[in-house]
């Protein structure tokens, strides 16, 4: 706490509180809210115990084994944990990682900016080890850090300290991310038909995310856009009548959540998967479903998803022959279009355009031209010790007039 | 234990052919080498990985060459007296080594439970072989056929010492294929067309040559750069040519379930989809870094020799096949 006798300059009250706002210490008056000081305060020995800075004339040298930089860093880690409302055991673990990292020779001479990020990385690693769903985006925004810099520090921390960081649990991430959606309570700026029950939405979003995981939409991709797209589909499908007309951008605005740019693509991919599954459901075949109307039937599709996935997507090897035949038959037409236009034929035999192998989207639509194996005949002829002709080297040298012209132009 | 515990049933199936060799038993409990087992167990590692995600597979019943001597009790009664003493000793070893060895905790728990009652180990309900822990320390080389895929070399980085001080401004003025921007980088960037490479030439006389597709091409290119510098009037030599890094890539032609790979090979893998779509696998032997992508493309880097790339790929291919996740 602040030194006794300090009063708020605004209202004169003696009730001063330490508060950690955005992981920075602030001394705030409890009565009027006036901020007395930011950052560390220099006070007496009792403060020194709690790792705050102390004026030299009053310092007792008790905590001299900790350098100022380390003290500051530890304080920052503790404040981060308080802001994120993490349990105390996380704080201790994060501080111990931070101390270990700062003593490691690899991080001694790292810039102060990176040392700050190091504190954030330690908190992040601790959360991941305890399966607390925290994304890098959250930590970066708390630290005002660039994600590339954070990524570099995180990877080197993981390597130098040999920490094992388990994978982010998608189910926990869904629950935490949905907590930040403001659709679960009635409020003035949310239209009544948009409000949704949290339990139902979480359950359905989890199912859609699981479906995405099974159909290769999650591997290698950033998790948050997938969760956003899944939440949108879940929300729409719970009351399709009123919500079908609402686009993704508006949904995110109403929910008070950022719309990550890849979410549109994820939504498209999810809808394509759902359409394929719908083509296998007997009572849906009569409807000519498109991307809008399939949303109404998401409940049914999710209920039978295991069966539908097995039927809608065939095993790879057989599909290759189909692909060859299809490729010759209709060059250039994407399979999704064929699927939506064509009526599904019998139940037993698979239509050529109806099924495709269950592969990640990068394999279904390769954007790069697949390069053939480089011709090695030319390469193998090189021995490395061949004679080098003078003419070949001369071509790389400038003639005298050229040099004159160049030096005149560049004024070297 | 009372009744037939799963442990007993398993050993009954195996027929109780245990060697009585205590010296090898201690090997099993050293934390860093849980793999000093005979080949049959090692070969089943791959089986174990794929079986984790499918139904529990039938365990091979022929364990005649397997060393199960860490278990103190066997079918015959006459050996029990001999082993009871040894059993106590090894039990102490076991208890001591349990906290050290979290990776093979599966084995340890089973064995420690069985000791007081002199029962035998058995596979757990999940079908995982108790003798093969879940997380390997080194990737197991498959005794089966090779993959048939050869990684293509994409880039070779080499260095050479020209052993003379160079005037970079002079070089940039007299050479057509050179660029020099001292404010941006303190070296001349020179390029030649055949072999298509780039070189960084420093004023100390050291040179880095990148972009070649084979070791011989890299050497030829470096010699050409040295000749250019020679023709510009500097007494350039060609000392200490060394290949520093080789990068190769290939395609296994099936999608890979990266989440599963990072679960089982946690010590070697780093998979952060928020940062990078691929999984970074740091192989210990040979010391190669592999970037594994969901599409099945693999990039191998960090090699000093071509054989290291091939060996690394042969090591990773059976592991990747285990994560093929055919649907």
Describe the main β-sheet of chain B briefly.
10 strands, antiparallel
* SSE run of chain B: HHHHHEHEEEEHEHEEEEH
Distance between the termini of chain A: 65 Å
Helix content of chain B: 25-40%
Please report which band the strand proportion of chain A falls in: under 5%, 5-15%, 15-25%, 25-35%, 35-45% or over 45%. under 5%
- The assigned structural class of chain A equals mainly alpha
Distance between the termini of chain B: 42 Å
| Rg of chain A | 31 Å
State the secondary-structure class of chain B. Answer: alpha+beta
Strand runs of chain B, count:
10
Strand segment count of chain A: 5
Overall mean pLDDT of chain B: 72
Strand content of chain B: 15-25%
**Strands of the biggest beta sheet of chain B: in what spatial order?**
2-3-4-5-1-6-10-9-8-7
List the quaternary state of the chains. heterodimer
> How would a textbook summarize the main sheet of chain A?
3 strands, antiparallel
Give the proportion of residues in helices of chain A.
40-55%
Number of helical elements of chain A: 21
């Amino acid at each position: 706490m602040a030194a006794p006798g300090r009063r708020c300059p605004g209202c004169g009250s003696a009730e001063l509180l330490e508060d950690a706002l955005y992981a920075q210490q602030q001394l705030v008056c409890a009565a009027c809210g006036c901020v007395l000081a930011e950052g560390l305060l220099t006070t007496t020995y009792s403060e020194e115990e709690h790792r705050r800075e102390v004026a030299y004339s009053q310092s007792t040298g008790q905590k001299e084994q900790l350098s100022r930089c380390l003290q500051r860093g530890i304080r920052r880690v503790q404040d981060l944990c308080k802001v994120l409302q993490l349990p105390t055991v996380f704080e201790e673990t994060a501080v111990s990682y931070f101390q270990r990292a700062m003593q490691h020779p690899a991080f001694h001479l790292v810039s102060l900016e990176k040392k700050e990020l190091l504190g954030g990385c330690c908190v992040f690693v601790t959360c991941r080890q305890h399966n607390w769903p925290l994304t890098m985006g959250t930590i970066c925004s708390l630290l005002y850090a660039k994600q590339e810099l954070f990524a570099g520090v995180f990877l080197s921390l993981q390597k130098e300290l040999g920490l094992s960081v388990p994978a982010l649990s998608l189910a926990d991430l869904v629950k935490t991310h949905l907590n930040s959606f403001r659709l679960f309570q009635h409020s003035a700026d949310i239209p009544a038909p948009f409000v949704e029950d949290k339990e139902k939405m979480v359950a359905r979003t989890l199912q859609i995310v699981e479906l995405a995981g099974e159909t290769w939409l999650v591997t290698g991709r950033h998790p948050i856009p997938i969760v956003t797209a899944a939440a949108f589909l879940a929300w729409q499908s719970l009351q399709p009548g009123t919500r079908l007309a609402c686009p993704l951008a508006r949904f995110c605005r109403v929910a008070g959540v950022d719309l990550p740019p890849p979410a549109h693509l994820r939504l498209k991919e999810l809808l394509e998967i759902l359409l394929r599954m719908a083509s296998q459901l007997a009572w849906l075949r009569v409807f000519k479903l498109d991307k809008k109307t399939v949303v109404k039937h998401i409940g049914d599709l999710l209920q039978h998803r295991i069966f539908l996935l097995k039927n809608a997507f065939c095993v790879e090897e057989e599909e290759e022959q189909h692909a060859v035949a299809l490729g010759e038959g209709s060059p250039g037409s994407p399979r999704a279009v064929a699927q939506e236009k064509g009526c599904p034929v019998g139940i037993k035999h698979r239509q050529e355009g109806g099924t495709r192998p269950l592969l990640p989207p990068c394999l279904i639509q390769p954007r790069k031209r697949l390069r053939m194996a480089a011709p090695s005949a030319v390469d193998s002829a090189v021995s490395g010790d061949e004679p080098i002709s003078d003419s070949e080297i001369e071509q790389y040298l400038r003639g005298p007039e050229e040099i004159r012209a160049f030096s005149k132009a560049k004024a070297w | 234990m009372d009744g037939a515990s799963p442990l007993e049933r398993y050993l009954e199936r195996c027929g109780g052919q245990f060697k009585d060799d205590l010296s090898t038993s201690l090997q099993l409990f050293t934390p860093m080498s849980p793999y000093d087992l005979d080949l049959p167990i090692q070969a089943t590692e791959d089986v174990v990985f794929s079986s984790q995600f499918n139904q529990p597979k039938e365990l091979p019943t022929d364990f005649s060459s397997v060393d199960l001597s860490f278990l103190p009790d066997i079918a015959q009664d006459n050996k029990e007296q001999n082993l009871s003493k040894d059993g106590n000793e090894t039990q102490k070893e076991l208890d001591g080594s349990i906290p050290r060895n979290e990776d093979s905790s599966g084995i340890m728990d089973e064995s420690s439970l069985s000791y007081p009652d002199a029962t035998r180990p058995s596979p757990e309900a999940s079908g995982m072989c108790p003798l093969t822990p879940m997380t390997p320390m080194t990737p197991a080389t498959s005794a089966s056929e090779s993959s048939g895929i050869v990684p293509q070399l994409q880039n070779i980085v080499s260095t050479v010492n020209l052993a003379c001080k160079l005037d970079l401004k002079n070089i940039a003025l007299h050479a057509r294929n050179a660029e020099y921007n001292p404010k941006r980088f303190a070296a001349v960037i020179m390029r030649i067309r055949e072999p298509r490479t780039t070189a960084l030439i420093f004023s100390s006389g050291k040179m880095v040559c990148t972009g070649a597709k084979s070791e011989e091409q890299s050497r030829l290119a470096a010699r050409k750069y040295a000749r250019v510098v020679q023709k510009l009037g500097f007494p350039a030599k060609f000392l200490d040519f060394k290949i520093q890094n080789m990068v190769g890539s290939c395609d296994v032609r099936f999608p890979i379930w990266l989440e599963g790979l990072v679960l089982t090979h946690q010590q070697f893998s780093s998979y952060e989809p928020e940062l990078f779509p691929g999984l970074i696998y740091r192989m210990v032997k040979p010391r190669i870094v592999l970037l594994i992508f969901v599409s099945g493309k693999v990039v191998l880097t960090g090699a000093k020799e071509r054989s290291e790339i091939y060996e690394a790929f042969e090591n990773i291919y059976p592991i990747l096949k285990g994560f093929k996740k055919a649907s």
